[in-house]
Specification:
single chain; mainly beta; WD repeat; 7 helices
């Protein structure tokens, strides 16, 4: 500790369990809140900041003080926080705790010093944003609704000031009641009672009408001149059935109603609302209605929240929407509204690190200077097409490159067998290249092979990687007890992969009974096995076979890393092979070594030959740290105290039995013993 101080510098990847979203349209920065109390602030690529509430309470809502470098967070522990963003590390300036009521909705108008807070009881409190204390002005629910109405209107689900008059506050209650409150006169302008629950409200910029989304999948339009009934009611995804009934639809959870200078038709954008009967209704959707055109965008994950980005921060100006930010449970996308086919922007943040769960990581510093450009040029050819050609709209903040100038690469292995190379030289990660290790193997058919028994969900999951940036050799260990060696090539090729199978399992007569090994996970009960000699086939139908089947035909491989050699451990006695726990590669000698609980194998990857295969008992002998006792040694086999005590004859016989073209000296075996 006196020589090193470890501190977090940056957090990469998608925010875990996101809950809410906010955008500053002037500074062009974005904030994402999470269920664990985290806040992620994003700007232009490279601007990425993470802060955490000490309480760990979920962040329910975020509100930027637009163009002022501050952010309000409303948390599940009924506390409001004011964050100062005008410093390198954002910090909390003020906090305000609500003791008796639960917050349900917050609204902060542009350039206003009053923050409106709606509660579960239906009351609205007003907070002075400068002193961050309650003003004492409370709009009680029983004052907002008619005195003759005894039923409680439910929690507040919407608050907004009128675009025409900031002194008028529109309050939406969950039950379907909407009230416009005159803040100066402290009285109600009008009340609307609707028989469907309200989820959201959105104003037309002129302040003469607004739109509501409801729990039955409908949208209603209301005009302030006549609030007795809506001027329009639509079910965007609900059709009238033959018997005259309308289809039942899912709730429309949020609607945005935006006007545009370039078109007389407004944009109506909403989430949900699909028919329960449609097969497509099973997937989360975002619908964009513009004129007579209706576009439904299907999402891979549930929608947490979406925001429509507009050129102006003023609610009383024509909005001119140009993009929609959609926060999903496990993804973050942005849709370009300026093009008729609504393409998505290419996300510059490393949000897809956990596209498939990360199962291993490796960090490489001071790589050769040419390795990152080479990987990037190959990886660029893998990228999807069809993205928007416009610049990423979130362009706020500034950042400076760190003092280090050496290339850094992070490699991540994933549950689906993919490997990703990331440029970590700057603050932000940039994906360089993606490798799919599963393409080496045949797809297992139902009931075929043993991959399913060993790793039912992810038979290709990556457990370990070794990379030599200088020689560009790359090695991957998978959960199905396999090792794949890759070589880098700038050209595509038709390659026939070489497959080697290794038996690396204890014989039953070498293992002590279960009672003596019950604390050691590497050994299983040998009582059901019959003694065998090394290399003899097992009793099971799949014995002496590996978990996965390597493609035995020439495979067309694109430029980049191309598989050259696959080494797999075999099943023995109806038992799957132990997972590989260690791996090393030596490009100078052309050797690949790997080990498991049961032993070590060394492979000559140039001549594609197994050089040696040594059990753990032979490696350790009497110095075995697990104190594994031999039972009845086989005939013609000497008990050894260490690998270095083997005679020259034994080594030569062992090598001859494996038909290796490479001779191994005692010195190299001694080194193996020391490294083990």
């Amino acid at each position: 500790s006196e020589n090193f101080h470890i501190c977090k510098t940056v957090r990469h990847g998608f925010p875990y369990q996101p809950t809410c979203l906010a955008f500053d349209p002037v500074q062009k920065i974005l904030a994402i809140g999470s269920r664990t109390g985290g806040i992620r602030i994003l700007g232009r690529p490279g601007v990425d900041c993470y802060s955490q509430h000490e309480s760990g309470a979920a962040v329910l809502q975020l509100q930027f003080l637009i163009n002022e470098g501050a952010l309000v967070t409303a948390c599940a522990d009924e506390t409001l926080h004011l964050w100062n963003l005008r410093q390198r590390r954002p910090a909390i300036l003020h906090s305000l705790k609500f003791n008796r009521e639960r917050m349900t909705f917050c609204h902060l108008p542009f350039q206003s010093k009053w923050l409106y807070v709606g509660t579960e009881r239906g009351n609205t409190h007003i907070v002075n944003i400068e002193s961050f204390v309650l003003s004492g002005y409370v709009i009680m629910w029983n004052k907002a609704i008619e005195l003759a109405t005894k039923a409680h209107p439910g929690p507040i689900v919407h608050l907004s000031d009128s675009p025409k008059d900031e002194g008028k506050l529109l309050i939406g209650f969950e039950s379907g009641t909407i009230v416009q409150w005159d803040l100066r006169a402290k009285k109600v302008d009008f009340r609307i009672y609707y028989d469907e629950a309200i989820h959201s409200v959105s104003w037309h910029h002129e302040g003469k009408q607004f739109m509501c989304s409801h729990s039955d999948g409908s949208l209603t339009m209301w005009n302030l001149r006549n609030t007795a009934r809506p001027i329009q009611t639509t079910y965007p995804h609900g059709k009238i059935l033959k018997d005259g009934r309308k289809e039942s639809c899912k709730p429309i959870l949020k609607v945005e109603y935006k006007t545009s200078r370039n078109s007389s038709e407004p944009y109506v954008i909403f989430s949900g609302g699909l028919s329960y009967d449609k097969a497509g209704g099973r997937r989360p959707t975002l619908t964009i209605m513009h004129g007579k055109a209706t576009t439904v965008l299907e999402m891979d994950h549930p929608i947490v929240e979406f925001l429509v980005l507009c050129d102006t921060p003023y609610s009383n100006e024509v909005q001119d929407p140009y993009a929609v930010v959609v926060l999903l449970e496990k993804d973050f996308i942005m849709v370009d509204l300026t093009q008729s086919n609504f393409p998505i922007f290419e996300n510059p943040y490393p949000m897809d690190i956990h596209e498939s769960h990360v199962t291993c990581t490796a960090y490489f510093a001071e790589c050769p200077p040419d390795i990152i450009p080479v990987l990037y040029s190959i990886g660029a050819k893998q990228k999807k097409t069809g993205y928007s050609h416009k610049e990423w709209p979130v362009s706020g903040g500034t950042w400076t490159i760190g003092s280090q100038t050496y290339p850094e690469v992070i490699v991540t292995g994933h549950a689906d067998g993919t490997v990703k190379f990331w440029d970590a030289s700057a603050i932000t990660l940039q994906m360089l290249y993606k490798l799919k290790t599963s393409k080496v193997f045949e797809k297992p058919k139902a009931g075929e092979g043993r991959a399913g028994e060993l790793a039912e969900e992810d038979p290709y999951a990556v457990q370990m990687v070794r990379w030599c940036p200088q020689s560009r050799l790359f090695c991957v260990v998978g959960i199905s007890a396999h090792v794949i060696l890759y070589r880098f090539s700038k050209h595509d090729a038709d390659t026939q992969m070489v497959s080697l199978e290794v038996r690396l399992q204890f014989d039953s007569e070498d293992v002590i009974p279960l009672s003596e090994t019950e604390n050691n996970p590497c050994f299983s009960d040998p009582s059901s096995k019959s003694p065998k000699t090394p290399g003899s086939p097992g009793n099971g139908s799949q014995d002496s076979l590996p978990c996965l089947k390597v493609k035995n035909r020439p495979v067309r491989m694109p430029p980049g890393y191309q598989a050259e050699l696959v080494v797999q451990l075999q099943w023995v006695d109806g038992e799957p092979p132990q997972q590989i726990t260690s791996l090393d590669i030596n490009s100078a000698y052309g050797l690949l070594a790997f080990g498991s609980c049961n032993g070590v194998a060394v492979v000559d990857y140039i001549q594609k030959t197994i050089l040696m295969c040594v059990s753990t008992l032979d490696l350790y002998g009497a110095a075995d740290p697990y104190q594994r006792l031999t039972r009845s040694p086989r005939k013609n086999r000497q008990s050894t105290s260490g690998l270095t005590e083997l005679s020259n004859n034994q080594v030569s016989m062992d090598m001859e039995r494996r038909k290796s073209p490479t001779s191994v000296s005692l010195q190299s075996i001694d080194l193996l013993s020391h490294s083990a």
